[in-house]
Amino acid sequence: MTAIAKGEVLGVRGEGLRLKDFVEQKYWPTVKASVSAGEQVRARSILDTQILPRFGGVKLARLRREEIERWQAERRETVSGSTANKELQRPGHLLNRAVAWGYLKANPARGIKRAKEAPGRTRYLSSDEREKLLNGTDVTIKAKDGRAWTMRREPNPALRLYILGALQTGARRGELAALTWADVGMKARTVTFRHTKNGHARTVPMTDTLREALAALPRPLSPEAGVFPEREPQVLTRAFARLVRDLELPNLHFHDLRHDAASALTMAGVPQRAVMEILGHRDPRMTMRYQHLTPGHLRDAMRALDQAMKQPPETASKAEVKGADGA
Fold it and tell me: What is the pTM of this model?
């Protein structure tokens, strides 16, 4: 074994190890099991289309911050700030693992300035929109020859269950799809999401509405059976897109149901820390992006401000007045 391989030159393991070999032999086999299936697809896509083609042949110990920043600058010219930041997270994470496992002394991606992101989406639902999503509505269909008729548009039972689950838990699409009956505590009234985006399981109290819906489902013998009907993520996304188009609900995506749950919790006065735990966020800044108050709530806040401004000043005590007169 050479001195480089032994780590006798730079004082780290596998000094001659190239980034591609580290990813395929060390990093990916270890981390892929700790993230959800959807996150595996996203992470692998970034690795295969961006990181490995650009840096795969570079030795870990020779990777420089300057090279990573140059790549980031180029990416910002062609993709949004949000996309560039998500791509930067992957080399940051894998190089952190390299440091933790002794293959690097320091992470060259650490401290690289993130791109400025556009404001996050603020889409959430009105009560009428929630009703339409869950129970459907009658819509008017017009033909080119002028004929018109009424049809009922509503979600199929499988899609309705997913919509209800997202609204009642704030869970992501993939987290709902991976939920098993072993993760449902009907007596404890909890659901535990184990396959999450950040790899950390979280337990969420069950609402009465969700408990009633789950209690009505047939319970399979195997506790490892899925709670929600098995659907490929993209199939579910397309089905939801067709539904919102038929219901004429503009600019609405399945992930917006998570926004809506967070917004509803916030408007109900739930503390930010509790909202963080329900959503599974580890960074408070992520939760803040969901805390959009409706115009009605803002108007109520401004009315309170107006009333406070109109309050007469407190009447000074007679003693204070006399003291002032005598001064």
Answer: 0.67
